[in-house]
Amino acid sequence: MPQISLATLDRLKAKGKRFAMLTAYDAGFAGLMGEAGVASVLVGDSLGMVVQGAGSTAAVTMEDMVYHTGCVARGVAAGEGDVPLIVADMPLGSYYTPEDAARNAARLLGAGANVVKLEGGAWLADTVRFLTERGLPVCAHLGLTPQTADMLGGYKVQGRDAAAAKRIVDDSLALDAAGARLLLLECVPDAVGAAVREGARVPVIGIGAGPGTDGQVLVLHDMLNVTRGRKARFVKNYMAGRDSVAAAFRAFAEEVESGAYPAPEHCYG
Ligand code: KIV
Ligand code: NA
């Protein structure tokens, strides 16, 4: 089964084709995602909430991430379709120094990840460069960064005013120049999503970042309507009107590729 690589995503971007990513934490769901045409799976530290039942991502450990990355890697390999690219989150506290980051990134790659994701802005550029020089591929997560959401005033849209928007775009340029192979942009106005994509050499994946990014990601439990309580504006229930998880994954991949998702009601215009 063909492996979807960073080069595959680069080619899709060059052709102006959009691609889908979903979070996965176990083998069963991850296997179905590849079969449904989801290009990439994210082993997110959102597992702190949706798997472990905590209120934030703060308590997620490297051991948790290694364990779930292994589960997902075995799952995608057993699936029938193209094998999705696996991105795995570096948990809070695992990348304060470049050396720590490299050691921990290598553990996640050893567990089966293809790319590691770190949250932060321009301050992270030295770490991104350190990992990249050592052949460890990085996705940089910016905009709303859940590991440090309290510092940002909670789960709120980022980059609302011109100065904040410019800082996010400048951060994205610094991380791209430092060698990040993917950018992930969370919870920003559509115009910021489009501006980041405009300046980026590498594919930009959005969650609540408008229709202008190269890829779109949702949390598995959100799109399957498992999550209780108030939902973010960008969440869409793909189980509505469908009778299987596989059909929900296929619909998400198709709607991302066609541009039907995100619709204006999922965006911060
Ligand atoms: O952990 C996660 O699920 C994430 C997504 C929200 C992008 O980082
Ligand atoms: Na995360």
From TrEMBL:
Which SUPFAM superfamilies did the record assign? Answer: Phosphoenolpyruvate/pyruvate domain
What positions belong to coiled-coil segments?
A: none
Where it mainly occurs, coarsely classed, is cytoplasm
Record: residues binding 3-methyl-2-oxobutanoate: 45-46, 89, 117
| Protein name as it appears in the record | 3-methyl-2-oxobutanoate hydroxymethyltransferase
Q: Which positions does UniProt annotate for Mg(2+) binding?
A: 45, 89, 119
Would you indicate the residue range of the signal peptide?
none
Q: Catalytic site residues?
A: 186
| PANTHER family per record | 3-METHYL-2-OXOBUTANOATE HYDROXYMETHYLTRANSFERASE (PTHR20881:SF0)
Upper classification of the source organism reads: Bacteria, Pseudomonadati, Pseudomonadota, Alphaproteobacteria, Hyphomicrobiales
Recorded hits in HAMAP family, A to Z, give: PanB
Q: What EC number(s) are associated with this protein in UniProt? A: 2.1.2.11
Q: What does this protein do?
A: Catalyzes the reversible reaction in which hydroxymethyl group from 5,10-methylenetetrahydrofolate is transferred onto alpha-ketoisovalerate to form ketopantoate.
| Superkingdom field | Bacteria
